[in-house]
Amino acid sequence: MYVEDYIGGAGIGTRIFWEEVPPETRAFDAANILMFNTGPLTGTLLGNKATVAAKTPERANHPYTFVGMGGQIASEIKYAGYDHIAIKGKAEKPVYLFIENDRVEIRDATHLWGLDTHETQRRIKEELEDPDVQIACIGPAGENLVVYALILHDIDNTASRKVGAVMGSKNLKAVAVRGTKGLKIADPKAFMALYDEFYDDITTGQGSTFARVQFQEGISRQIAEGYQFAYGTDIPEHIPPSPMIDFLKKYMVRPSGCAFCSFQCHQMFSVPGIGNGATTCVNYLGLLFQKMYDASDFDLWWERTMLANRYGVDSLSIEMIGGWLMELYRRGIITAADTDGIPMERRSREAIRTLIEKIAKKEGFGQLFTDGIVPAAKKIGKGSLVYADQYDNASPYAWADYAPDLGPAAKWRTGEVERVPGFGDGYGNIPAFAEILGVSFHEAKEIIDGFCSDASERITGDRDLWKTPKYNKGISRITIEKEDEILLSDVTGHCEAKSSYLEHYGLRFGIEHYAKWLEAATGIEYTPEKLRETARRIRLLVDSYNILCRRMIGEEPAVGMPIESLTILPQPGRPKDPEEMRKVQEDYCTTRGYDPETGVPTREVLEELGLKDVADRLSATEGNTGAQ
Amino acid sequence: MQRIVLDPTKCVGCRVCEGVCSLVNEGEANPVKSRIRVVRTVENVLLYCIPVFCQQCEEAYCEKVCPAHAVNRNDNGALIVDEERCLGCKLCEIACPVGAITVNSEKHVAIKCTQCAVVGEPQCVKHCYPKALQLLPAERIGIARARAKAQKFLEMERRD
């Protein structure tokens, strides 16, 4: 029944969560589940993604969230014979979970407690005498229940959205998996033919070439340039190369990406005097914020990236907190005496190092930040919260995140359309793209615009809609399409970074292809319509569950910055008007079948997708404002 | 006669070779049944990858040591295990200087690279996008390797 309605991955994972975890559960309760999901394509040539799910501790009412994690471990879980690993309860003392095919052991981890994420993995491999065991673990931050702690696997593949502390609350230091059973493919020949079609496009297609430029160095370059070349700006034909290029050339070793991926967006760096590690382009956002250091200070950027991974905290949360402290210091709201004698000077290596270490180890002033930025502001007082970039105690960069109720959620989501997928955000890379293709600057720009127009036409029926800075109905349609696409990648196990989720980069493999791939892999018939319907069902279930969390726990979100001022990529020509945002939110709710006033899914749409039990639970709790 | 040639400095460790090998030769997604294995080593937070696969030795110990005469060379020079004849005795596993032949615990016979005799073209080479693996006529391999090394000197000497 689950396979029929939820396919797999985060889909079935969410249904299990709905059945097993009462919505009033708090993130650190033993009843919370930490779940590793794999999809039907995970472990094949067309999938390598795991999602890690839990009720998470950072935001009000502890919303249920799942986050993607790449690397090798998702496939290894699959080869060991599991689709999902669900961890409930709480160990009395530190343990780690070891799975080798049918053998499952809970082993002592007292000797690993306190170790960083890389040393933990090294020691477990040594102890198990198997260098090929795949490990996901927490660092000191997760152990100390820092609410933005991450789970890290191999060289810096992370599940970075707040799940690390849940692992820590269970006294679970690591999950180590070894699988040798492999996967049967229902129709190997058909699957190989489909893979070949994908492989050819992903290695030599124009869109993939552009996406590769974007991922492997381009996004970093554009961010270092402050995204100054976006749609609507006058783009000079000679874009000066960013100083980031020198840094990349010198210190980028090679990719260290996920299993069975010929895209390799995950790059290893070795920076003398600072250290080794790896990152995807997401981390480059720190350079854009420029909160702790200048956009050209790549050494400091790398230092914070590497330390955050080693100690196991989300680096962009560190960016927000560190930037906030530095702003408070600059304004004289805090002094060095408030931060254990270390002045929170912007651009200070010592400040950044100390901050990350003390937060993760829960030492000295680091203890202020265990529960996030809003509780810290309450302790510091003096009007300090005003300077924090936060919404509901989270940093304003949440990609595909889930908010506890639909009012803010829809705003977050639709707001993202103006930031991510940021159609036309790749202009800074036109010269590099033109060089690779051997075409002129103008031809390259036309190709990139073509990708955006094609995507815009497919989703909204209007080729030029993506160029419109003002309110239009297309925004919510693009949002919903992108949400469904990324959700289906969480369900199938195919990574969204090489899917039509990034159609504006020219990547064309999406829902239509998932249907064929799933059928060849599993032998079960799938259609794009069925996949879209499944995505809607899962989305409804996630949102309904989080509404129940809100009703049962009843906390008010700590509203911070006005929602319309949350920005991640400043896109010229796209001002955010609160009235327009409200209209987008309304469109979104109407299209999804939610009440535009309350953001609650209607009974009609729930029943249409076979979720009568969900509608009943929502009706039964209507008007409920928490246990207090 | 053609051989699969490795340039380990180009390998990024993506393991696509393992994926296509097991799919084409065994109909499975299963690295354990792949005839090419990427050995991944993590040291000081950096990953090093070396693909290991049969070199189709000129004097092949697997062929020589096999008591069942199950290992024979085909027209392309690839050493092929006759699964009907294979006893699963593992002598070939012990004898192989490369570590590229194993007795599979499910099939109970030795499996090794056939240069994809089933489809006529080595799929690992075809799907190696960084070109760490290449298929070359045996007599061209020497100059190809020499050229790759010479390239480094060329880069030193080259003038604009």
Key features of this structure:
heterodimer, A: 628 residues, alpha+beta, six-stranded mixed β-sheet, 11% strand, B: 160 residues, Alpha-Beta Plaits, 2 domains, two-stranded antiparallel ribbon, two-stranded antiparallel sheet, 5 helices, 9 strands, 22% strand
Report on the architecture of this protein.
- The complex is a heterodimer of chains A (628) and B (160).
- Chain A has helices at residues 2-6, 9-20, 73-79, 117-128, 140-143, 164-169, 188-204, 206-224, 244-251, 285-289, 298-311, 315-330, 349-361, 373-380, 406-417, 430-437, 441-460, 474-492, 511-522, 528-553, 578-592, 603-608, 612-620, and strands spanning 33-38, 50-55, 64-69, 84-88, 95-100, 103-108, 134-137, 151-153, 157-159, 172-178, 183-184, 252-255, 267-271, 275-279.
- Chain A is α+β, with helices and mostly antiparallel strands and 628 residues long.
- Chain A has one domain.
- A 6-stranded mixed beta sheet of chain A has the order 6-5-10-7-8-9.
- Chain B is an alpha+beta fold.
- Chain B is 26% helix and 22% strand.
- Chain B has 5 helices and 9 strands, in the order βαβββαββαββαβα.
- Chain B is globular.
- Chain A binds chain B through residues 43-45, 72, 79, 118, 121-122, 131-132, 154-156, 180-185, 188, 191-192, 195, 199, 203, 253-262, 264, 268, 270, 275-278, and chain B through 12-16, 18-20, 22-24, 27-33, 40-42, 44-47, 127, 129.
- β11 (183-184) of chain A pairs antiparallel with β2 of chain B.
The first-level CATH class of the largest domain in chain B is given as Alpha Beta
Low-confidence stretches of chain B at least 5 residues in length (pLDDT < 50)?
none
Described by the principal axes of the CA atoms, the overall outline of chain B is: globular
Number of strands of chain B: 9
Under CATH, the topology of the largest domain in chain B can be stated as Alpha-Beta Plaits
Could you tell me which chain pair has the largest interface and how many residues each side has? A-B, 42 and 27 residues
The arrangement of helices and strands of chain B along the chain is EHEEEHEEHEEHEH
Report the total helices of chain B.
5
CA-based gyration radius of chain B:
17 Å
Strand content of chain A: 5-15%
- Helix share, percent of chain B: 25-40%
Chain oligomer state = heterodimer
Instruction: Please state the average pLDDT score of chain A.
Output: 88
Count of the domains of chain A: 1
Cα-to-Cα separation, first versus last residue of chain B: 40 Å
Total beta strands of chain A: 14
Question: Helix tally of chain A?
Answer: 23
Describe the sheet with the most strands of chain A.
Answer: 6 strands, mixed
Strand-residue proportion of chain B? 15-25%
Tell me the helix content of chain A.
Answer: 40-55%
Compute the separation of the termini of chain A in Å.
37 Å
